[in-house]
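Troubleshooting log. The previous structure file for this entry was overwritten by mistake, so regenerating from the original sequence record. Sequence copied from the archived sheet and checked twice against the printout by T.R.
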Amino acid sequence: MADDDLVQINLKIEMRDANPNELDVEVHRLHRELREASFTTIEARESAPLGTKSMDAITLGALTVALLPKLIPQLIRVLSGWLLNRATQTLKLKLPNGFECELTGSLSASEFKELTEQLLSKRTMAQASGKR
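Regenerated output below.
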């Protein structure tokens, strides 16, 4: 398949009360888990600049994963498993077309199915890849 068939999904980790080092550790852990799950097109993005704070003292870290649409269910399984024991963390997914969702904790079977269907919908995929 051509590179233009790949879907880019931006991932942002949000952690309450975390310092930049803790966030960096978590970004590297998620990156390693994605690599171990055979996602090879992963790009680390810069964390929020040091010294910046939001009202809730949430620190941000980001990765971008480029994958074939058929691998989206596997990605959601990996992300859900990664979040399982991270009660203070939220993972935000964003597609280039503006579609966004937020994951916290594990997903039920129905939530997994609904999210996978949303990400795989023809409309979402066409907008994410720039095709009509």
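Strands lie at 7-16, 42-45, 58-67, 89-94, 100-103. Archived copy saved in two places this time.
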